[in-house]
Amino acid sequence: MGRERSSNNRWISGALIVVLLFLIFFIPSYGWKIRMWLSPAMGASPADGSSLAAQNDALQAQLAALQVVASQLPTSTPNTIRAMVYSRYPMNFRNELLVNAGSDEGVASGDAVTFQGMLIGQVQKVFGSESLVQTIFDNNLKMPVRIGSTGTDGLLQGGADPVVGSIASTAAIAPGDVVYSAVSGIPYAQPIAEVVATSTSADSLFQQATLSFPYDINNVETVLIMK
Q1: Would strands 112-115 and 118-126 be described as parallel, antiparallel, or unpaired?
Q2: Three-class SS of residue 171?
Q3: pLDDT in tens, 18-59
Q4: Burial label, 11 (beta-carbon count in 10 A; 0-12, 13-18, 19+)
Q5: pTM score over 0.85
Q6: Domain ranges of the chain
Q7: For 75-227, CATH number?
Q8: How does pLDDT run across 95-152, given as a tens digit for each residue?
Q9: Is residue 15 within a helix (H) or strand (E), and if so which, with residue range?
């Protein structure tokens, strides 16, 4: 009885093998399906590999962007909008930044823009998903500011090397004094720079202060926009 059952099993196995070989070689459509079922790895086409590679590249790009955010910015708050700065290479302008947040995210013209707590500019133009930021390194920027613990008034003049002018000749300011915002539309006392040295203006009526900044505007990749 056992021999008969074993013999029957061999006949059945042999018959199945013959049928499978016949389908594979003489009816390709069925044969292809059978090969895919028997070997799932054979079902992966070059297109599938390209798709996986593209997904991997997309994930790598997202990871890189998140690492930049983590290294440069604190978590955004309900009163701020976090934005990434678009690359300006090779036209590495310092006077303006284009960021990836606009009216769709609630950005408005005139909003203050900061980097690591420092005021670096103000939103100049707003689009749906982008905004153009005028930085303090723009020659056309002029902004009322105050200096040091005495709150001395001055006028920030933007440019490649921003300075503060129109400082009273009798004002006591010194290197290390912080220059901070004092203009309507921007949060009061937002730090901008430090005084490096002072000099007398060309007309001898005012003092002028040269400034230092704790960052390189060319390396700024993420900003906070203050609503």
Answers
A1: antiparallel
A2: coil
A3: 555 555 555 555 555 555 555 554 445 555 666 776 676 667
A4: exposed
A5: no
A6: 2-67, 75-227
A7: 2.40.10.340
A8: 999 999 999 999 999 999 999 889 999 999 999 999 999 999 999 999 999 999 889 9
A9: helix 2-26
